[in-house]
Amino acid sequence: MTVEQAIEQQSEALSAEGYRVWLMSQATPSWNLDRTRLPDGGAGLKRLEVLGVPDETRSIYQQHARSLVSTGERSRVLAFVAHVGAPHTATQQWDSYMAVYEQARGRVPLHVLPQFQSDGQQARQTFALGSLLGFITSQGSYFYYTPEDQLDRPQRLGQGLSNSLEYFTRRTGLVQEVRARVEKRVAQQGLAVTLSLLEGYYQTHKGQADETVLELKRLVRDYAAELRQIYQFTSDAVPPPFGPPPEVNHV
Q: Does the global pTM surpass 0.85?
């Protein structure tokens, strides 16, 4: 007997659809969001549901075909729920984590594997994104980073684009700070608005642009491609079920 056959046999106590709704309500994340850090309290978050069944082609949940995945396991139905669109900086534990991270950074090695550090390419991409969003600005030939705290003075990065970019990429903590602000801004203004801004930058090409500027445009285009995949993915997300989860009698 498969798990779906067992669900059908218990339909008098709880229908198959009622069981699915209850199961999805139990699939909760292990972290908590601080919704005050999200625009509209997180109303713009997308909910994605995936139901793992033994065989999606012969499942009793065919009416939810878009969210079904075959697992090949006859004895279990698996539920996966994700809320897409929140940056990691919106978690309630983020401030505590960053406080401890900043205390330890520079005194002890924090990253065992090099891919957990911001590599040069990502750092240059972050510089370009920070400039587009107004976090990094130029005055004359000098470039400055403006911190999020308005009481902090702008930090001079260097004179000229190449020197400023080189200085920025060597400051891992600064790169991570700007990256977090970029992700926060993307979450606030939405993917569609962000994609329009990025496309306007890298699609505007002047024949006299030097190689550094062209590289930054390519990096911004790569970031836009990643966002576009997320945008297309979340546009197809399955909407959440309406109404409270059913009551279940446990035997």
A: no
Nearest Cα neighbor of 231 from 191, 176, 189, 177 is 191
State the residue for tokens 């891992």. 172
Q: HSE on the CB side for 71, CA within 13 Å?
A: 18
Q: How many CB atoms lie within 10 A of CB 227?
A: 15
Whole-number Å distance between alpha carbons of 77 and 89: 33
Question: What CATH number is attached to the domain comprising 170?
Answer: 3.30.250.10
Q: Which domain holds residue 70?
A: 3-90
Q: Would you tell me how many other CB atoms lie within 10 Å of the CB of residue 104?
A: 11
Q: Which amino acid is at 96?
A: S
Reported as a single tens digit per residue, the pLDDT across 91-129 is 888 778 878 876 776 566 665 554 444 578 889 999 999
Compute φ and ψ for 16, nearest 5 degrees: -60, -40
Q: Are 87 and 183 a contacting pair, CB within 8 Å? A: yes
